[in-house]
Amino acid sequence: PNPSGEKAGPPPAVKKILSLFGSGREEDRMVGYLSMLKFGPKLLKYLPGQKVRHLRNWLNVYSYWNQAGVDNVTSMFALVINEYIGREEGGKTGPETAKAALLEAKPVTEMPNQGCVHPDTARVFASPADYLDWYNASGPLAAESRSGVAPKVGILLYRKHVLTEQQYIPQLIRCFEQDGLVPVPIFINGVEAHTVVRDLLTTKSESEADRKRLKRGFAEVDAIVSTIGFPLVGGPAGSVEAGRQSDVSREILEAKNVPYVVAAPLLIQ
């Protein structure tokens, strides 16, 4: 803490690094944080000091955990053992360090933070447009999708549930198709739902001015279903961001002007 009793926060150099991520919009601050989690360790290795080392290790541990999978979790524990078992605070090595250093912490096996998936293919599509290119050629409702007869529904999925292969995801996609709807399933970490709806999904009702701000790879949908459970803008339960950003949520949804349904799965996180 500083003399006033308040926490001083990270060192100035680290604060500068954090400021480099994100679009600059207040509602996108958490999205910038996710980007920092991915690239931060690579940048922090150039900064000296024990506090920076601990921050870098924390970011690496989080990366392993966030990517999930047996190999990543194994490497996560190897990293912790290599860095801290038998290692004193000042960086000196203890008697167990030589043994601990033998553990192999492999690079993180990564899955994109965002993408589109379908149970009929192992591919992960970078954007809704790429996904629809595949679906229009090979999807169960390919003909209906190409002709525009079948309505398209954007489905926001929790990335962790995709990584852990939760069975409700393919079941949900099949249910949409059985009802004659073309699913556009997009997985996200959770807090960036608004950026997907705002920047990657458009509708027939959206104004030309708003369409010009869309990102490359967007797709047109007739409805949006969120299985995330988080507010459109903001973090998980307990976060005050959702209340502070309710006007932003309203602005995004009014611009799209299509049904937006929240249908969270009955799972314990």
UniProtKB/TrEMBL annotation:
Residues 9-59 form the Magnesium chelatase subunit H N-terminal domain. It catalyses: protoporphyrin IX + Mg(2+) + ATP + H2O = Mg-protoporphyrin IX + ADP + phosphate + 3 H(+). Residues 62-268 form the CobN/magnesium chelatase domain. Pathway: Porphyrin-containing compound metabolism. Keywords: ATP-binding, Chlorophyll biosynthesis, Ligase, Nucleotide-binding, Photosynthesis. It holds the Pfam family CobN-Mg_chel. InterPro entries: CobN/Mg_chltase, Mg_chelatase_H_N. GO terms for biological process: chlorophyll biosynthetic process; photosynthesis. Its EC number is 6.6.1.1. One of its GO terms (molecular function) is magnesium chelatase activity. Signal peptide: none annotated. Belongs to the Mg-chelatase subunit H family. This is magnesium chelatase. It comes from Chloropicon laureae.
